[in-house]
Amino acid sequence: MIDNFKKVVCDNYANFSGRARRSEYWMYLLAYWIISVVLGIVLGVVGGILGLDEQLISVPIYVLGIALLLPSLAVAVRRLHDTDKSGWYILVTLIPLIGGILFLVWAVSEGTAGPNKYGEDPKRSKLFD
To answer: Rounded to whole angstroms, how far apart are CA atoms 112 and 129?
Structure first.
């Protein structure tokens, strides 16, 4: 899980080309969620003990969200590429409810077997490394 997070954030921070396997996408999101929750709990406890303002202790959460916005978009676009869809399909998420469900279906779908117009099959290349 941490390896996928580091791969997305360090190696592919703003890389919108290529393909991302399901495991890379979902493990990145899981790590992001865990980091956010743990950070929120720690900040809440520390803020409560020190009597800090809620808006002040939320700042690190916002900074994390802004810092990881670009890699989150990049890995989502690469995930779409793996299913042989254009990265512009991410805009479907702007449609309330239906867009999120549609993107979820694409995100859990198996990628195109073999190479497609976005690159080599990351699952196949991983097997032969």
So the answer is: 19
What is the CB neighbour count within 10 angstroms for residue 99? 15
Sign of torsion over alpha carbons 53, 57, 61, 64? positive
65: containing domain: 2-127
pLDDT in tens, the chain (129 residues): 788 888 888 888 999 999 999 999 999 999 999 999 999 999 999 888 888 888 888 899 999 999 999 999 999 999 999 999 999 999 999 999 999 999 999 999 998 888 889 888 887 755 444
Structural contact between residues 28 and 88, judged by C-beta atoms closer than 8 angstroms:
no
What are the tokens at 28? 């990145």
Chain centre distance of CA 98: 20
Residue 88: both structure tokens together:
């512009």
Packing angle, helices 54-67 and 22-50, rounded to 10: 160
d(CA 31, CA 73): 15
Domain count, the chain: 1
